Queue: 2 jobs
Job 1
Amino acid sequence: MNIKAGWNFCGKFWQVLVNPLLNRLILCFLLLSIPESGHAQEYEYQEDVTGFKEGDIIGFDQVELLKPYIPQEFWAHRHFFFFEGMQLEVGPPFRDYSNPPEFKAVTERFKGQARIGPEGSLENYTAGEPFPMGEIDCLGDPQAGSKIIWNFDLQWSGDGARGHFLYTYFDRGEQLNLYYQGNAKNIEMTGRIEPRYLEKNGGDIFKNDPKQRVLGIEVKEPFSARGLAAINYRYKAARNPPAQIKYDDTWIYQPDARRVRRFSTKERADAISGTDFSFDDLRSFSGIVPHYTWSCLGEMILMAPMNTKQRAHPYSDDVNFGPFGLSYANDRWEMRHAVLLRSVPIEPDHPYTRKDIYVDKETLTPLYSLAYDRKGELWKLIWHNHRWSEDEPEWYEGWEGVQRPRDLRVISDIIANAQTGTGNRIEFYDMHGTPFDKKGKIRRYIDIGRLSQGR
């Protein structure tokens, strides 16, 4: 799932790497785990959706119908995404994908306590949605962008994520002989809503633990990368103002050296050689929130892949993603209420001047995003597919404290480079958020010693 040997990532940080396979893993484990003035009137979308009804099939000769309901930049590059033979099914408009009652209750309990601190930081957060979306005035509240992105960063995701991944590469429609696949699990260590954690530990799994989330990953294929494994810690202190942030730590097991090495993952914005993703592009945004300024440009109705009918990796590797390998047009799409966020990096040498992210207003899952280079020209188009837990309870089971997960999950990321024609696709269609059945398993999983045990 990662990157060619010889990457030159993050300057001096990567110069210390002995085994180039380490470079491949860094992008992989960040899979799971997220201003300039703008005005809503710049983005005009029709709100009359009566022309579509559930069950309609839109073929290639009808894609003009979609134009008013997708970002203009995506439409301008539709050759990546729409193709002869596509069968786009229209799903139910504005379906209820709301969070479980347990999460809603916790949100209400702590309502009004969280606040935006200096330089876009987050203060006094315990659990639930920090800033109830229904109370945020996108254009009237100068802090609306910051509030929504913190909601995005802390959105409901159950325990985190667990499943299998496949990462593939494309160059102007040709699939390259380069892929990575393996297993990954992400655990939300704080902000938990289960009573056994919330009442005893203030939302922490382990009381006063400094970690926000932990991600573990193992690469199974190809043979040259087999056995590579890592654990990544994201800290609560990543919510602080930029000068006080504690950056991610990463421990990587090198199978050839039979040793574990530790790295501080500070630089996240540079595109990594061999891929079109940067670390912060995954899930449209997987970065550290206070490293950017955020504004809300408006609300609109969009059509997007929302609740897949397909079952790609690890269920099947025969799904039709179009001639460029970068399309969800052969799947189910739905009308959704969305908000448009603009992020502008605070670092002057950041490779982007800005990124525009379209976020589903109800679920806070990403729909589309657009990244612009230093010249202000469109560089990358990113979009996602999703899967709804309640349609298949055997895939995503409830647990003590959460009877039904009610979780709309991202299960695939696609990025297309508008300037080169290259792109990448990440599939993890079985990813769910049901936790381990015992707390001891969590303790063992997040232990760095696990990386080298039994190897």
Job 2
Amino acid sequence: MPHSLSVLLIVLTLLLGSLVLSGTAGADGGVPIPAPAGTTWRIIAGYNTGTHSEADGQDPHAIDIVRLPQDQTAFTPVLAPVSGRVAWRDWDGLSITDAAGLDHLLVHVAPLDHIRHGTVVEVGEQVAIVCRAHECTNYGTPHIHYAIHQSRGGGYLGRSVPFTGDYAIEGMNLYWSDEYNLHGGVELTSTNTRNWIAPPVGPTEPPGAGSDGDSGTPDGGEEPVSVPEPDPEPVWVVPADAPVGGWRTVSVYERTSVAGLFANLDSPLLELVVHNPFLDSFHRFDPDDEASAQIAVQSLRPGQALWALVEPQARWLQAPPTGPRTVTIRLAAGVNLVSWQGPDRSVAEALRNVAHFDHAYRYEARTDSWTLYVPGAPDFVNTLDTLRSGDAFHLVVRVGSTWTQLP
């Protein structure tokens, strides 16, 4: 055989082999649990929970999973559920864009050092580890938050999609309905490994389909998935004395992403700045700046607060809280930017159960001034005397802890 023909056959063989590998490593036919083969996992928060909902930044199809037995979840290796390119990476998670252009979001995990924006990974490759309790924003329960999102490019996430059809998880279709905590309690055993091949997909009819296997539609086709209409947006009234544009602190009332909060605030915003008290760093989000895309999917929870830059000369007030509620906030030693979710109350009474409390201060946007509260200080020092429901303020503690607000 001529040498040139031999070389050509070798090249063709390698190309065909790479095509076969890319086909088996994609999402065709489903996705695996993002953890080592043989480990068993339970869904502890399914669709339509308090943290996976239409109100949660278009994230109703996410699942939170823990390893069984649950005390083995922390430090479990996290494996890529698809082959693709890392679109977003932060200290508490990452996303991978697959061949179809969808982003696979994994949160409450610590990415490995070599996993960076743009890194190419293969299904079954370790990309992170599950964080232990009270780390990576897991609020005391080690778990993996897994969701598949339509992608807006550059790490920006669109609406999530259910784990069905080409994205059935471990051969199981997790169909959508408006049932609370849908699929909560389901247990799945991972088959994730390099060159993963999807197992056979389970029953194709969604909940409520006929028991004889028919879809229930006149033409025998697949029954359409019912997606409930979102509740109408609340009507926000801007008071006459609302401050005009510039910097001010804003409160977080519902669990969402940074981009979700930006979209939901009733304001001509320019950017948000997030303070990470555990790293003592600030992260800027501007939807027109691709460099801040990795901040867009950072998770926010009730009780947190951010800095917001509002367009000059624009009257603005953020949405009020739906009512006083009990929230638990994780505090780092030092300065924490938080919000008060209880009823209007004296600052001393509101902060009475903060462990290792040092002092608190608040920026007053209407007067462009600061107010301060230091326990035991004279009245002329303590200019911050009341916390109103929804107030954002800086809380300084000497030792890290958690704080449960008591309405």
